[in-house]
Design goal:
heterotrimer; A mainly alpha (51); B mainly alpha (226); C mainly alpha (223); A: 51 residues; mainly alpha; 1 helix; rod-shaped; C: 223 residues
Amino acid sequence: MEYLGYLFAAYSVVWAVIFGYVLYMQRKQKRLQRQIEMLQKSVASQISHDK
Amino acid sequence: MNGRRNLINNLLFGLGLALMIAALYMVFMYVPTEKSMGIVQRIFYFHVSLAWVSFLAFLVTFVFSICYLRKRLLKWDYIAHASAEVGVVFTTLVLITGPIWAKTAWGIWWTWDARLTTSLVLWLTYIAYLLVRGYATEPARGARFGAVVGIVGFIDVPIVFLTVNVWRTQHPTTIIFTDGITAPMLMTLVVCIAAFTVLYVLLTAQGAGLKSLETSIKRLKIRRTG
Amino acid sequence: MSTFARIITIFWKDILTELRAREVVTSVLVFSLLVVVIFSFAFSTRIDTAELVAPGILWAALTFGGVLGFNHTFAVEKENSRLEGLMLCPVDRAVIYWGKLAGSFTFTMVVAIIITPIFLALFNLPLFLPRLLLVIGLASLGFAAVGTLFSAVAINTRARDIMLPVLFLPVVVPVVVAAVRATAVVLADKSWSDMLTWLQIMIAFDIVYLVVSTLVFDFVVEE
């Protein structure tokens, strides 16, 4: 089993980096989600204010 | 419309998962071990697939950059941007898995061969692409500048490849397979490329969707605050 | 006015400004000379190794000097808000590109023509190498074609001094490689046929980037 470690390292790094990228997108999505919630609140408060 | 898009998305996910499992099975169980390099040669299948798909990603950025500059549809720009992002991620992986393989196969981490050098230059160019978009003083400018860099940078690829090829005429291809590429190896490679292409499409679609969402929210905010 | 006359007008404007202020050529010249000196120390160059490392040192100096110079190309217009004036000119944007290009190319050539003999003397190499002029001309044209375009991009970004080299250097890799190899051929006094491929690469690069930059420049400066 020569160099099995190298093979392991190569395949792990591929998935580690792809997971990292997915995580980056997820955080971006969460940030956008928070902004939508803020907008919803501001819309809701305006509607109750108008009544 | 939305339902059909969901269906396509689910189908792609299923296809991608099936292809990736098939690819892993073929890489580790099906394909015979290459004689001269041993087990490490199995890095080749993912490494080459990632290289092909990252090239495809930059090609997509190039094409959609031209479309964006001509028609100014924001949708084109989202795809170009997302594709470049995935391309950079995949090229990073190419540049990491390459040396791991080279170290055991040829005893060196790096050689200034045409393919390696071109990948490195591509990587640097598209990092510049992402930076220019990030640092542009306003998003509309970023989209235009990005498109220009996406076009100008991609045209450089054949010139860089040709130049380095003349400069360093050694080809590692001749050393990759002592007995030439066999049918099972080729089949494994094809399945791996297919699997990564589907992964690329999924990631790019996701990224482009996020960018579109980001813009809509920004517009809403501007309308709320006046 | 014909298109050519318009290009010449913009070109003359830059030349006159430079003749009065002497900002670009002087600073780039001093900077390039410093790069030569630093690299000679870094490689602890001796006479017997000079021919081996000299082409690399010369082109490292001219490349980094070029980046410094191209940073000026549009930054000067931006600082004094002359850019708006220039863009309001009733001319095609491509004319502005070619006018600025002619200026940058001239400055790069002037710096290279002064630096090269000094450099050759410092390394005890033969001074009279007319073929080197052709190499410098082709490489400078390639540098200027890309540099002028990216200079216009970089001025509209934050951290613009960093943005230009980050954009410029990866793209000009073929020119740097070809110029270094062609210079090595000239310094070794080998035949024309040995440098033909490198000259062809530079000519191809110059043509491709002059055409593409002319086409896309409009999108960089619109608004």
